[in-house]
Amino acid sequence: MRESLLKVIGAVLFGLVLFSCVGCGSQKQVVAAEPKQLPSWYINPPQSNQSDLYAVGDGKDKQEAIANALAQMASTLSVFISSTYSAKTVVKEGRVSSSDGIYVSDTQSNTQEIRISNYELLQAESFGFKKYAVLVRSNKQKLFQSMKQEIEQNFKLIEQNEDSISSSNALKQLSFYKKTKESLLNLPNTLIVMNVLVPNFDGSLYLQKKQRVDTKYETTLRSITFSIDTDTNAINLEAPIAKGLSEKKFKLQKGEGNTHFNLFIVSKIQKASSYGFSLARTSVTFVTKDMKGAVIGSNTLNIVGQSSQGFEIAKQNVAVKLSALVQKEGIGKIIGLDI
Question: Are the beta carbons of 264 and 284 closer than 8 angstroms?
Fold first, then answer.
């Protein structure tokens, strides 16, 4: 019995060894693919000069590679370009191929809004799965002219809009100057870049126009006054609203004309209790009117005050929660005004 068992085990082991050897003989030899040679224009790209900017970039596809190349180009001007990309192929001399052509594009920074436009795509090549490289060129004079044209068009639009709101109330004018001021925040950086592109460029005129907008904003802000009226239920809600307006540099006083506004606060309270707590279910409505009585902003909030010490304390808790909302959301959102 023992000898038979040993014979069986031996036969099995022999079969396994034989099968393993046959498998070894049938295995395919793995051949390592040689990496694709990088082109000279990628390894040693042309250097930027007095007339043109050059840059290389790579990415998972051609669009991303172009965006990264423009980002690299922009870094030489001390600005940042986002990967937002849009391109339009322009046929030149009847042909455009994957590595020869002109792409007209605007790649815009989300933070600094510097544009690189009318660049040329000189080279584009795929190096395998999700790997592209490109070489791009941008003419400094054309880039400068496009930036200058954009600034001038922007100021022309500002002047047109300023004329259209000249007869509006002060809050509408303030909103206009606030948005305009924000749109011009990057102007000094843009002018610096333009001066890099064209060293004898003088951007002082544009800075003066920006300063005029800043001054108009401050002057309009200082001219605005608010008065606050409340009903009996909303008396304790006046303080957090007044504080929020004051922090925005608005004056709280009686006034008249298109620079004065009346803010009305109306409150409806329902008394309730839950699990030993007193509740003050409160609906607060804010309405702002100009001196002609026209409603220019409104909002309604539902706030539940609570306290274990009685209903009066719960009503005070409503004011505490309103104050927290003003700090979190901003006074403009709370009362329904764009300020």
Answer: no
DSSP-assigned beta bridge partners for residue 129: none
Q: Which amino acid is at 294?
A: A
Interatomic CA distance for residues 128 and 50, integer angstroms = 35
Question: 257 is written with which tokens?
Answer: 């004309």
The residues, any chain, with a CB within 8 Å of residue 314's CB and separated by 6 or more, are 277, 278, 279, 280, 305, 306, 307
pLDDT digits over 182-226, tens only?
999 989 988 988 888 898 999 999 999 999 999 999 999 999 999
CB 108 within 8 A of CB 128: no
pTM of whole model > 0.90? no
Q: Are 300 and 284 in contact (CB under 8 A)?
A: yes
Q: End-to-end CA distance of the chain, in Å? A: 100
Instruction: Tell me 117's DSSP state.
Output: -
DSSP 123-136: EEEE-STT-EEEEE
| Strand pairing category for 295-307 and 277-290 | antiparallel
Distance of CA 59 to the CA centre of its chain: 23
Three-class secondary structure of residue 26 per DSSP:
helix
